[in-house]
Amino acid sequence: MSMVPDVADSSRPGDAPRERGAGAWERLVPSGRNACVVGLQFGDEGKGQIVDAITDRFDYVTRFNGGNNAGHSVRIGDQKFALHLIPSGILNPSAINVIGNGVVVDPEGILAEIDGLVSRGVAVGENLKISTRAHVVLPWHKTQDRLMELALHKSRGEQDTIGTTGRGIGPCYADKAQRSTAVRMGDLLHPDLLLRQLQGAASVKNVMLAALAAHLDEPFEPFEPRQLHETLLGQARRLAPHLCDTSALLRQAMREGRRVLFEGANAALLDVDHGTFPFVTSSNTTALGIHAGAGVPGGSVSDVLGVVKCYTSRVGGGPSATQFDDETANHLRKVGNEFGTTTGRPRRIGWLDLMAVRYAAQLNGCTGLVCTGLAVLSGLKTIRAATEYRLAGKVLTEFPYSADDLWRVEPGYAEFPGFEESISDCRRYEDLPEAARRFVREIARFVEVPVRAVCVGPAREQMLPVPAAG
Ligand code: IMP
Prior knowledge:
Elements: H1 24-28, E1 35-39, H2 47-54, E2 60-63, E3 72-76, E4 79-83, E5 96-99, E6 104-105, H3 107-119, E7 128-131, E8 135-136, H4 139-156, H5 169-178, H6 191-215, H7 225-239, E9 243-244, H8 246-255, E10 260-263, H9 290-294, E11 303-309, E12 311-314, H10 327-335, E13 348-353, H11 354-364, E14 368-372, E15 382-391, E16 394-395, H12 403-408, E17 410-417, H13 434-447, E18 451-455, E19 463-465
Parallel strand pairs: 1-10, 1-11, 2-5, 2-10, 5-7, 6-8, 7-9, 11-14, 13-15, 14-18
Antiparallel strand pairs: 3-4, 12-13, 15-16, 15-17, 18-19
Helix pairs in contact: 4-5, 4-6, 6-7
The structure holds inosinic acid (IMP).
């Protein structure tokens, strides 16, 4: 497909040569058709690296959920790009990047991201399409997010706060369901309609938030709809060229036989329906969300790649059954740089939770796994992975629905010999120490999904395809 980005030059610093692990495409997307990449834990599994490794075979890269609560890091040469709303395919000059209707878009956030990319020589023009049906994150959503967290903290204490990213994601999705207080991206192109919507919503938000702020002894400045209208119209002028019916675009593309890659944000255990509710984000983060969130028919995706970090990290509130806090955890946090891409918060660390990963892989219908973070485990004498949950003395056969139960489960661990040597310089799966390969085999065996690649670091050449008999 011919694609001429209309802003800036399409060459990128650090982009040549684009080294790929040999055979990555064949191993990761054996169908050669549409695929998706989703995280199978609590986010921060390293999905961006996987997407980046295969985007140049896709015509479209599509986000279908979440907002700028997500943070995808992609490393090209010595440059690191942190993307929040814009699909990772933006770093591939020939892909069209789609922000689907299921995403919530903060206009200020996305413009800052576009400016950041352009200033580093990345073309952002006709290669970025934003759904007119996507909902707009407005300033009051961020205020509401913060006040709701404070209220939760005050009434129920630290353990019960969700620990949101503060980006207004939950309140924006809540308004989508509420309808009368919502604004969609397409509305930014209709100044009169937009003003009426803002005036209506502000009249409700100002009353609600003033009362909540007073209850919490927090300052509150009412929102001025006309001022907000002016700001949004300025942002709309810049975003207008990107806005379109992305569902129609994708359906047409698929009819023409174009390949689409769907890029999941956040991760399975943060799914609003299937995650560790209420300690979740507000969208369907699994492959189950693709059809509604991108406006494409069921059966549109052939290869579902689940990304599994070889240990667990979690940021924000909520249970993580295998969490531990000692010198080893500090070591893994440091070596794995486990600090939030979006908020900088230190992440909680746990052993690999295979009970959770198997549940997530089944929900997503994973056809393949990619293991990340293996190199972080180098130097440990023993590696552990949870293969059983017990609650009140009983072995659980399914992942518990209740966060309360998850706080209380006692994981049963399998132990594996560690590997002393650093593996980040390995360039073929076969070069990994036997102990590392054994751990990878165990993941595939327990989850009942083949591991198709292992990442020994964040760089492109550090993704090692696993041979079919691996
Ligand atoms: P929210 O999405 O900002 O409402 O946050 C809800 C919960 O999801 C919090 O615990 C966040 O820390 C977590 N969360 C949301 N997005 C991500 C992500 O991309 N990575 C890790 N955690 C996330």
